[in-house]
Design brief:
Ubiquitin-like (UB roll); 75% helix; three-stranded antiparallel beta sheet; 410 residues
């Protein structure tokens, strides 16, 4: 929603000025005409950048809330309720703030005479190309409620897959974060206490060799850096994170990062299966909704979440555009296992491409579940070993010189 300043006159020639929030200039113009005003000028008002708008850029719509909205929208339309009344009803009962604003925008555009799919174009942050394409196909075929039901199912499956991966990574992330905090506290608070003890021993025994072991020198050096140059550590971390995010947003960086993730032992296997499950589920849903095959290929590649699959679908697009098959270029890319190529080929030959893609999605969703469980079982003892090793190194490095110095003094 944007704020627009307008100038208009009524039928008697009396000027009128004001501001109005709307999704587009067309909506403002239509509402002014309904009020009996003749529009002279409409301009978008650019407000100062607010902190809220900055955070809004990093916020994404809740998939579960969007799925519920789609399911309810389909139910209301199937019951015979008029489109505008359905949108008003959904607007009133939606709890997600971002989704509510998007529904209001869509409703205002529909009131101005726009189609639902065209109205959703003004809210790309909520309704992605996949969603809009399915809705457009549903409107064109006169089966919008079926299209909304199908997209609701797609969103529910994608949300379940995302939650599955997120829940599996929550425990390792929490353990690693707590371990990192504990190690920083030990290095910043406890190690300096031992350093003072070492200095006292050196002062009391000037004729004794009080040089510290290499392990202790490393720990003391790290402690000195953390306590005296903490600002460099923070600045370096922030700068590295910023540089990484900027690099990952570029086409080249995104591709390199996705390739790197696929090559990480064990984790790469999970990343591949998640991307294949998402791609096949999206592709099957678009084919079932009646989306043109070339558009379905393009959108499924863009929404797969992996640049390697996106590149592969570009080759598939060119193949189908020339009159070729989908399966042949898929078989030329390593990210697609032979099973995917064979099942897609069978689906094309039998006219059951949607069914085969759904089976691929179900297979890889089950595979993701099994792989994540095995990966979690591997990560837990590995993290315990790493954290225990670091803590053990610090403890040994602190007590080793104490015993050594006392032996030398005696």
């Amino acid at each position: 929603m944007s704020t627009y300043a307008f100038r208009a006159v009524d039928l008697a020639g009396v000027p009128a000025r004001g501001e109005m929030e709307a999704s587009s200039k067309n909506v403002v113009s239509e509402q002014l005409r309904q009020r009996g005003l003749i529009v002279l000028d409409i301009s978008e008002k650019h407000e100062a950048l607010k902190l809220e708008s900055i955070f809004q850029r990093f916020k994404s719509v809740n998939l579960r809330a969007l799925a519920v909205f789609s399911r309810q929208f389909a139910t209301l339309i199937a019951s015979g309720m008029p489109m505008l009344r359905s949108l008003y009803t959904l607007e009133a009962q939606t709890e997600d703030e971002m989704l509510e604003k998007a529904i209001i925008s869509v409703r205002e555009d529909v009131e101005a005479g726009s189609s639902v799919a065209a109205a959703m174009e003004s809210e790309p942050g909520v309704f992605d190309p996949l969603y809009r394409s399915v809705v457009r196909a549903g409107e064109g075929s006169g089966r919008l409620e079926e299209a909304l039901d199908r997209i609701a199912y797609q969103l529910e499956r994608l949300d379940a897959l995302r939650r599955q991966v997120r829940s599996a990574m929550t425990y390792p992330a929490v353990v690693f974060g707590l371990a990192l905090v504990v190690m920083i506290l030990v290095v910043a608070i406890i190690v300096p206490v031992f350093v003072n003890i070492f200095n006292e021993i050196k002062a009391d025994s000037p004729n004794t060799d009080t040089s510290l072991p290499v392990m202790t020198q490393i720990t003391v050096g790290v402690s000195h850096f953390v306590t005296h140059y903490w600002y460099v550590l923070i600045a370096g971390t922030v700068a590295s994170a910023y540089a990484f995010l900027r690099w990952k947003k570029t086409d080249r960086g995104r591709h390199q990062w996705d390739v790197l993730k696929l090559r990480i032992p064990r984790i790469g296997d999970v990343v591949q299966k998640v991307a294949l499950a998402r791609w096949s589920r999206t592709f099957s849903g678009m084919v079932a909704s009646g989306v043109p095959i070339l558009h379905a290929i393009e959108i499924s590649g863009e929404t797969s979440g992996n640049a390697v699959i996106t590149d592969a679908m570009d080759d598939v697009y060119e193949s189908v555009k020339r009159g070729g098959t989908i399966a042949q270029p898929i078989g030329e890319h390593e990210i697609f296992p032979p099973m995917v190529e064979h099942m897609v080929s069978v689906g094309e030959e039998s006219g059951q491409l949607e069914t085969m893609l759904t089976k691929i999605a179900e297979f890889y969703e089950a595979e993701v579940d099994a792989k994540i469980k095995s990966l979690t079982a591997l990560i837990e003892p590995l993290m315990i070993m790493v954290v225990g090793g670091v803590v053990g190194f610090i403890v040994i490095s602190m007590y080793l010189p104490i015993f050594s110095l006392y032996d030398k003094i005696r």
